[in-house]
Amino acid sequence: MDDDASIRKVLRFALEKAEFSVIEAENGEVALTLFHSADFIVLDVMMPKMDGIKTCAKIREHSAIPILFLSSQDDEFDRIQGLEIGGDDYLTKPFSPRELVARVKAIFRRTADHQLESTPPDGSEGTIKYGKLALDLKGVIATWDSQVVTITRSEFEILERFIGSPDRAFRRNELMRGQVVSDRTIDSHIGHLRKKFAEVDAVVIDTVHGIGYRLSSCQ
Amino acid sequence: MDDDASIRKVLRFALEKAEFSVIEAENGEVALTLFHSADFIVLDVMMPKMDGIKTCAKIREHSAIPILFLSSQDDEFDRIQGLEIGGDDYLTKPFSPRELVARVKAIFRRTADHQLESTPPDGSEGTIKYGKLALDLKGVIATWDSQVVTITRSEFEILERFIGSPDRAFRRNELMRGQVVSDRTIDSHIGHLRKKFAEVDAVVIDTVHGIGYRLSSCQ
DNA sequence: TTTATATTCTGCAATATTTAGCCAATTTTG
DNA sequence: CAAAATTGGCTAAATATTGCAGAATATAAA
Fold first, then answer.
1. Are A61 and A138 in a shared domain?
2. According to the model, what pLDDT value does residue B166 have?
3. In the listed set A87, A116, A145, which residue is the last one of a domain according to the structure?
4. Closest CA of chain A from B177, distance in Å
5. Domain span at B79
6. Do A11 and A109 fall into the same domain?
7. Is 60 exceeded by the pLDDT of residue B20?
8. Are residues B177 and B204 in the same domain?
9. Burial status of residue A115 (CB atoms within 10 A of its CB: 0-12, 13-18, 19 or more)
10. Which partner for B145 in A21, B33, B118, B132 could form a disulfide, CB atoms 3.0-4.6 Å apart?
11. Residues of chain A with pLDDT under 70
């Protein structure tokens, strides 16, 4: 999904050699109609019709599909901005096709890891743990150091999003399954979570000023 | 991009043999209009219309594209100066075409290495390291020798810019995503960074008088 | 329907960050 | 060495971001 046909050709070749199947879209509008059938997306920051950033935002309203951004060095665009917007990784032109493939594989490894984590082999099915925090996905119960913390469904979903990428800072609109709510609303949920966990002397969420929030170390 | 047509011919031959594609510009002004489509640039220090140094500065206002300088021995221009100004490498005439090609390849290897470094095989994806300095891009956390240093977003972005080209001196206006702010503002950010890193006995930024700043050796 | 609970939003106060002016200290230049 | 240019650190104002207390709305339970 790059505006420059020749780059697309190179990408297609490299990805197909790595046994991915590739669909192309020459601009953001087309991309939006196709992304449902894809496993991941490579977006050029600069695209005709709709730029990569807008396209990413649109996609993120509906889906958490992995997105990798491409940009030229002179695009005045950097990793932070890319991540803020909801990208999973970011690559600057020029890059080697080999590196692109490596990045894509890394994204898959990462998301695959998560999915495995939720059904680990040791019988503790359906619970995800990170430090003292544990989320029971079936019972929708959160515990801290084995003590139950009663939270609502939205609050649980926010924690679920966090625990899926425990080291990552999320922007607000990434935290609620792409539902469009005001930033203050998210703050509100975060506030409630903090208050509830404070009752068991736990700090679960750090704020990342200018970006959003991040799961704390949970120790 | 050399003023002397015969040298250009030799360079073109050597580079094309090494499977690079070459665009020529007979002076700095022309070079400025062409550099967008290039992967790297070879600049002669002495060029008609606009000298190599000025051209490099102009290019550096927009791009971090690799630049290699050529100079004659009697140009009163030395390696240090070339690198400080924003060059990535520097070659004195006379030189063998083979050496030029080797240098160019080295530049590519270096920049590629960097990019790879950000997805190392050990699972610590999304962090860039240089010496004791590490930037966790996803978490937006800076560490020195594994100690967390709390910095703001702009400060983080400045470090990110630095670590992308750790040997290069940057002009102030290159450091903040092209945002137009006064030079004093940059100084201020740099000052804050220095103070914060001083608390863990670290020196992260050197000043390059008359140019701007550069990442320190980070040892 | 009524009641309770959960969710979202609004507006404002509290914080944190960014910016720029000032001037002394430092470095470079002539 | 003196003059000019540049930088560092301080300050304070301007901006931007976040936290929080209701209030309004939606949803579920009784």
1. no
2. 83
3. A116
4. 5
5. 5-115
6. yes
7. yes
8. yes
9. exposed
10. B132
11. 1-22, 24-26, 28, 31-38, 47-50, 60-64, 72-86, 92-99, 102, 106-125, 178
Nearest C-alpha of chain B: how many angstroms from A136? 25
Q: Are residues B14 and B95 in the same domain?
A: yes
Both B193 and B108 in a single domain? no
CB contact under 8 A, B177 and A78: yes
Q: Which of A93, A116, A139 is the last residue of a domain?
A: A116
CB distance A59 to A27 below 8 Å: no
Average pLDDT over residues B174-189: 86
Round the CA-based radius of gyration of chain A to a whole number and report it. Answer: 19
If asked whether residues A129 and A197 sit together in one domain, one would say: yes
Query: Are both A79 and A96 inside the same structural domain?
Result: yes
Residue ranges of chain B whose CB lies within 8 Å of a chain A CB: 36, 39, 62-65, 112, 115-116, 119, 125-126, 136-140, 152-153, 156-157, 160-161, 177-178
Residues of chain B found within 8 Å of residue A91, distances taken between Cβ atoms:
115
Confirm if B196 and B149 have CB atoms less than 8 A apart: yes
Cis ω on the peptide bond leading into residue A94 (within 30° of 0)?
yes
- Partners of residue A169 in chain B, C-beta under 8 Å: 138-140
Domain count, chain A: 2
Same domain, A81 and A153: no
DSSP bridge pairs for B127: B136
Question: Would the CB atoms of B39 and A94 count as touching at under 8 Å?
Answer: yes
Q: How far is the C-alpha of A186 from the C-alpha of B207, rounded, in Å?
A: 42
- pLDDT averaged over chain B? 75
CATH number of the domain at A16, please: 3.40.50.2300
pTM value > 0.70: no
Percent share of chain A, pLDDT over 70: 57
Q: What whole-number distance in Å separates Cα of residue A65 and Cα of residue A62?
A: 9
